[in-house]
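Retro notes - structure team

What went well: the batch runner handled both jobs without manual restarts.
What didn't: labels got mixed up in the shared folder, which is why I'm recording both outputs here explicitly, each with its sequence directly above its tokens.

Job 1
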Amino acid sequence: VQLQASGGGSVQAGGSLKLSCVANGMIWSTFTASRMGWYRQTPGKQRELVAEFTSDGKTNYQDSVKGRFTISKNNSRKTVYLQMNDLEPEDTGVYYCNIQVWSRDYWGQGTLVTVSS
């Protein structure tokens, strides 16, 4: 299984980006039943959870992104997305997708998001 993330870039504050993460090599039924999420890492800080789908399909968001970010997925494409609106400089970081299968974590390669003021 390999997670391929894309969609990062540089935007000004208030702009939008949409991240995508494709789970190559993952069986469809496994994808639909797995917990998955997006994490963010900035220099000097630990990787932090931004948004997630729990294994029962519920969504959770970090307080700082509520109302601005939306996690979604397309099961048939085995892809999880993160729509980021009204971006702030504090959202700058490397974003990683994660899928957890039977307590094993799979990570994407990270995609850089830079938000300038």
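Job 2
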Amino acid sequence: VQLQASGGGLVQAGGSLRLSCVVSRSIFSDSDMGWYRQAPGKQRELVATILSDGSTNYADSVKGRFTISGDNAKNTVYLQMNSLKPEDTAVYYCHVVVVFTRRAYWGQGTLVTVSS
């Protein structure tokens, strides 16, 4: 199983970025997927999830600004981040849980830096 995350970078406050995570085709359609983030000196926290039934959930801090989505044809889960704030600065990780086995996998992380 492979998870390849990309799309991080440096952006000014108020800007946008889209993160992508390519997931192995063998598990994509049978998995719950999500994005987590970890800021310097802080614990990793949940940002958003999209379940295998398509339902989504967001942390209060990103509601209305971030959107998680999946593309079955590309085996990719996205995190569209708008109206970025300096406090969104963190390493973002994609996370996959295979529904039937409950095995979990992490991507390698992509750094998002939001300047004020």
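One thing worth noting from job 2: The two ends are 37 Å apart (CA to CA).
We'll revisit the folder naming next retro.
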